[in-house]
C-alpha cells in the first residue's frame, strides 16, 4: 500500500528529486516549499503540493487539518528543506543566523510537534543533515551558522528517538555529503559533486521506507566526499 509521505523543500534539488521518486513508486506525497510552481509538473499524480514557509509556524495547523482530513495519518516525514548562507562569521548578522536556524532547526521542530498526532510507532521521521553537522568531520570556513544548525538538528533527532521510542515514530538522520544542487553551486561555485540529486534521492527513499525497522536515533553518514 502506498505511504503518506510529507517532504519539505520539495521545489528543487534533493527534495524535488525525492518527490518525483516517491510518486514514481505510487506513494502519496505532500510536497512542501514556498515555491510550488516546479511541482505543477506532478499535478494529478498523487502529489499534493502546498506552499509553506517553514519560518511561519502559524500556517502549520492548516497543514495538519489538511493531512488529517485527506489521509488521517503520516507515515514518513522528511525534513529536507535547508538554508545555507556561506559567509565569514564576522560578516554574518544575527538576522541571517536566525533565518538559518529557523529553516534548519526551529521549523522542523515545530512541524514535527504539529504532525506528531498523525504519526504512530510505525512512522519514520528522517532529518537531512550534513556531514559538516557531525562531530569530528571536516569543517568549512563560512559555514559556522549552517553547519552548527545541522548539528542541532542531528542531536534533536537523536533525543526525539529516545523520547518517543515507546509510543511514537522512529527518528533518524542522514548526514549527507556533496550533491550537485543549486544550494551546493551557490555555496561552492565551481565545485563538482560526485552525486546527482536523483542518486541521493533514491538512497533517501529506500532509507525512509525501510531504515526505521533497523535504526532509531541514529545519524548515518551518506557521503562519498565533503563538502
Ligand atoms: N546539496 C548538498 O551538497 C547538500 C549537502 C549536505 C546537506 N544538504 C542538505 O540537503 C537538503 C536539501 O539540499 P538541496 O541541496 O537540495 O537544497 P536546495 O536546492 O537549496 O533546496 C532547498 C529547499 O529548501 C526549501 N526552503 C528553503 N527555505 C525555506 C523556507 N523558509 N520554507 C520552506 N522551504 C524552504 C526550498 O524551497 P523554497 O525556496 O521554494 O521554499 C528548496 O526546495 C538541505 O537540508 C541541505 O542542507 C545538501
Question: CATH homologous superfamily - what is it?
Answer: NAD(P)-binding Rossmann-like Domain
Could you please say which CATH topology applies here? Rossmann fold
> Major β-sheet, in short?
7 strands, parallel
Classification by helices and strands:
alpha/beta
Q: List low-confidence stretches.
A: none
The number of helical elements comes to: 6
* Fraction of residues in helix: 25-40%
Number of self-contained structural domains: 1
| Strand order of the biggest β-sheet | 3-2-1-4-5-6-7
Which tags fit this structure?
17% strand; 227 residues; globular; Rossmann fold; alpha/beta; binds NADP nicotinamide-adenine-dinucleotide phosphate; single chain; seven-stranded parallel beta sheet
Q: Can you describe what's shown?
A:
The protein has 227 residues and is an alpha/beta fold. It has one domain (4-222): Rossmann fold (3-Layer(aba) Sandwich), CATH 3.40.50. Helix content is 37%, strand content 17%. The chain is built from 6 helices and 7 strands. A 7-stranded parallel sheet has the order 3-2-1-4-5-6-7, with helices on both faces. Helix 1 links the parallel strand 1 (4-8) and strand 2. The termini are far apart. NADP nicotinamide-adenine-dinucleotide phosphate (NAP) binds next to helix 1, strand 5 and helix 5. The site of NADP nicotinamide-adenine-dinucleotide phosphate has 31 residues, from helix 1, strand 5 and helix 5.
Topology (elements, then pairings):
Blueprint: E1 4-8, H1 13-24, E2 28-33, E3 47-51, H2 60-70, E4 76-79, H3 94-115, E5 124-130, H4 144-163, E6 170-176, H5 182-187, H6 197-210, E7 219-222
Parallel strand pairs: 1-2, 1-4, 2-3, 4-5, 5-6, 6-7
This protein binds NADP nicotinamide-adenine-dinucleotide phosphate.
